[in-house]
Amino acid sequence: MAAGCAGMNARNAAIWYAQDGFDPAANGINGRRVAGESFLKGFLRHAAVDEIALISKAPDEIAPVRDLAAALRPQMRLRHVPLSRPMAVAPVQTVFFPSPNFTAEAWRRAPYGSAAWALCGITHTTSTAAVMQGFFDLRMGPVMAWDAVICTSNAVLGSVTHQMELIDDHFARHLRAVPPPRPMLPVIPLGVHCDDFTPDAGAGAALRAQLGAGPEDVVFTTIARLTPHEKFDPLPIYLAMQRAQAELSGVRLFVAFCGMFRDNYSRKVFSEGAARLMPDVGFALLDGADAGQRKAALSGADVFLFMIDNIQETFGLAPIEAMAAGLPLLVSDWDGMKDTVSADVGFRVPTRMLSPQHLASEALRYQGGMDNYVQYCASTSALTEVDMGALVARIVDLAADKGLRTRMGAAAQARARAVYDWARIIPQMQDLWAEQDAMRRVGTGLRYGAHALPVAPSPAALFGGYPTEQARFGAQVFAATGRGDLAELLRVRNYQGLKRMFAAPDQIAAVLAATGRGADVARIAQAAGVPPMQVERILIWLLKYDLIRRI
């Protein structure tokens, strides 16, 4: 039994939980949160573990996960691990962090030794300055060979590897140092719960009626963030649809975009562009915040369209959802879709980008603060081609051949279940965690003094030249002054208003009582039942407020 538990713990990972990374309903729908929520549900359903450990600041923060577990796996034990006590993660020895940038967690681990547990992050969007700086920090921090960053596609692996090679070259040229081992960079895709995307015939029929699409008409639908700057430029799609419509007879094309607009600027680009550039094609905008409309978009469509031309995208979860719904795919040959959309399930339209030298100014303007992130993404997108001729031809192929659509849709649904259901993905993640744990157990780590982390030195050391001298209590004896009211002082000072206090009020009271008419640190610690270092923290505060004196 013990050996079985040890093996199960090796294949488990404590989830570093912050609601912002896992709850789109509470924090707003975006790809990162949707993927995080989907992972959490997949983990609860399919992880072969005997407990689920969640790391957060306070126990009440994991309440949404408790509710979710009660619905999906009510017999599973959930355990809260305080962020302030990271060693309490044991017996689980890997931490899953919902981002690639876990350098801060590596420094949090450093006082306990970098082999104390393994860290596993995962990529989402990798084009932001914060994430790119994060990869630089990752190479500079105490990250070990048994740590890992899951890359959700081979394209992302190539991107991350390229940046790490540049960083390592900087190590060698500027620091004249040998770069440390890189973290593991396994490719594991995101997943879905396929049953969630079973089509709803009634919702699909209602959408087609809303569009005015007849039985022989062909509806192309997209579910995505509706921004021409950070997701996809709709105008080439409109141009291609209009050209394809002119080549078809007896079939009318429809385009339905389901998503949300951040601003009226984007809404105007999408709406006016459709009216001006594809007047002969039916068009509708659906509310992506409405689960019913998202279901209708997948249930009433004939083809799922995902013509991404933006570096903000890294994987493409929506095409997997469409595959699970049994739709054929027409996508750009872009990042994650290179892996997910095989020839039997859909078409990938070629894309082209200029040389690195051509786009050097985009990188420098963004890094230097002249362009913001939206401008950076938009400029790069503007200089990315989606092959127009191929796009038109593939629209025509799919619109003209119902049998082709049916075959591809069936293959897509089978591929989603065989490859991308969380029941298939979670075991791959557990295999990774077990590999990390095995490497960690035989590895040699680094240990730093908790007061001497290079990125977070103790303020008493960093600012040690500010005060007159360092307090050294040694065998010094302290006695209560009898002046002042401790409870009243704490009430007026109101440290709790900041939700952070240097010591618990009952500890402060116990130390004050233990000083009596005279006692040193050792006697006070014994009488108060408080560790000596904590006693010294409290003593200096009591001196500050004239509640005790040196004798």
Could you please describe the fold and organization of this structure?
The protein has 23 helices and 18 strands. The N and C termini lie far apart (59 Å). The model has no long low-confidence stretch (mean pLDDT 94). It has 3 domains: 2-190 and 427-442, Rossmann fold; 194-420, Glycogen Phosphorylase B (Rossmann fold, 3-Layer(aba) Sandwich); 471-550, Arc Repressor Mutant, subunit A (Orthogonal Bundle), CATH 1.10.10. The radius of gyration is 29 Å and the shape is elongated. By secondary structure, the protein is an alpha/beta fold. The strands form 5 sheets. A 6-stranded parallel sheet has the order 3-2-1-4-5-6, with helices on one face. Helix content is 46%, strand content 13%. Helix 21 (505-515) packs across helix 23.
Residue windows where pLDDT falls under 50 for at least 5 positions: none
Strand share of the residues? 5-15%
**What structural class do helix, strand and pairing data support?**
alpha/beta
Which descriptor suits the 3D outline?
elongated
DSSP summary, beta strand count: 18
- How much helix is in the residues? 40-55%
Q: Please tell me the CATH architecture of the largest domain by its name.
A: 3-Layer(aba) Sandwich
Domain count: 3
> At the fourth CATH level, what is the homologous superfamily of the largest domain?
Glycogen Phosphorylase B
The major β-sheet equals: 6 strands, parallel
> Average pLDDT across residues?
94
Question: What radius of gyration results from the CA coordinates?
Answer: 29 Å
Task: Give the distance, in angstroms, between the N- and C-terminal Cα atoms.
Answer: 59 Å
Strand order of the largest sheet: 3-2-1-4-5-6
Can you tell me the CATH topology of the largest domain? Rossmann fold
- Which class of the largest domain in CATH terms? Alpha Beta
